[in-house]
Amino acid sequence: MKTAIVTGASRGIGAVIAKRLNELNYNLVLNYRSSTKSMEELIKSFTNKKTKNIIVKCNISNYQDAKKLIDEAYKNFGKVDALINNAGITRDNILALMTEEEFDEVIATNLKGTFNCCKHIARPMIKQKHGRVVNISSVVGLAGNPGQVNYSASKAGLIGMTKSMARELGKRNILVNAIAPGFIKTEMTDKIPEDIKKEMLKNIPLERLGDPSDIADCVEFLISDKASYITGQVLSVNGGFYM
Ligand code: NAI
Fold it and tell me: Is residue 59 included in any domain, yes or no?
C-alpha cells in the first residue's frame, strides 16, 4: 500500500485531495494547523476504511515542526511515496499598505513551509530511491495579481523551487511538479468580494470557478505511473484564465 503526506488537509483543496487519495487506497499522513475536529470529521467521511491514517498537528512554517511531520510519517509507514505541499495562506493588501508582517507570514507559510517539508523528506526519499512531490502553486505566481505581491511572490518562488528540485532529484527517481490552480471554489476564494468575482469570471473562458476535485484529478495523475516521465513541470488548471 502506498503512503502520501498532504499538508493543510483540514479543508478546501487539501481535504478533497485527501479524500481522493483515500479512495485510491493510500495510507495518509494528514497535516493541519488548528482544527482537530475538522480532521477527525474528514477521516470519518473517508469511504475506504482499509487504509491507515494519521493526523499531525503542526505549523509547517516552523522548521522543527515540519521535521516532526516527516518523521511521524516515516515512523508510522517506513516510506512515503508522495508529498503534496498544499498548505497556503493569503494576506492580501495593496503594496502601498502591505505590512512587513503580511509579507513575511505569507512567505513563511507558502514558500518556507514547502521548503521545510521538502528539505526534511529529501534524504529519506533519496534513500528509498523513489518519490513524487507535488507543490500547489497558483496562477497568480505566473500572472501576478494586484493586492497579492506577497502571495504571488511566494507562489512564483514555489515554481523555481519545483524546477530546481526536479533537476537535483531526477537521478534519484524523485519527480517534482507544481500545479497552478486558477480560481477554485474554497473558503480562500469565498473571501473575494462578489463584484470582483464577477469581473474575474469575464476573463475565464470556461465561465466558472474550478472545483477542488479538478486539482485532486491532477494530483492523482502526477503521482500515478502514468506521469512517470514528467518532472519539473507546472500544470495550469485555470479554465483558460491564463494561457
Ligand atoms: P484554504 O484556506 O481553504 O485551506 C488552506 C489549508 O492550509 C487550511 O487547512 C489551513 O489550515 C492550512 N494551513 C495554512 N497555513 C498552514 C500552516 N502554517 N501549517 C499547516 N497548515 C496550514 O485554501 P485552499 O483554497 O484550499 O488552498 C489550498 C492551496 O491551494 C493553497 O496553497 C492555496 O494557495 C492554493 N491555491 C488556491 C486557489 C483557490 O482558488 N482556492 C488558487 C490557487 C492556489
Answer: yes
Helix/strand/coil for 207:
coil
- pTM as predicted: 0.98
Query: What's 55-98 look like in SS3?
Result: EEECCCCCHHHHHHHHHHHHHHHCCCCEEEECCCCCCCECCCCC
pLDDT digits (tens, 9 = 90+) for 66-94: 999 999 999 999 999 999 999 999 999 99
Residues having CB closer than 6 A to ligand 1 are 7-8, 10-14, 31-33, 59-61, 86-89, 109, 113, 136, 138, 181, 183-184, 186-189
Indicate the number of domains in the chain.
1
Per-residue model confidence (pLDDT) at position 197: 87
41: domain CATH number? 3.40.50.720
How much distance in Å is there from the Cα of 164 to the middle of ligand 1?
A: 23
Q: How far is Cα 225 from Cα 202, in angstroms, rounded to an integer? A: 37
Specify whether the CB–CB gap between 177 and 196 falls below 8 A: no
Instruction: Classify residue 242: in a domain, yes or no.
Output: no
Question: For residue 243, is it within any domain?
Answer: no
Q: How far apart are CA 86 and CA 32, in angstroms?
A: 11
pLDDT digits (tens, 9 = 90+) for 24-69: 999 999 999 998 999 999 999 999 999 999 999 999 999 999 999 9
Mode of pairing for the β-strands spanning 131-136 and 27-32:
unpaired
Count other C-beta atoms under 10 Å from residue 72's C-beta. 17
Distance from Cα 171 to the centre of ligand 1, integer Å: 31
Q: Is residue 141 part of a domain?
A: yes
Residues designated catalytic: 151
Print the domain residue range for 142: 3-237
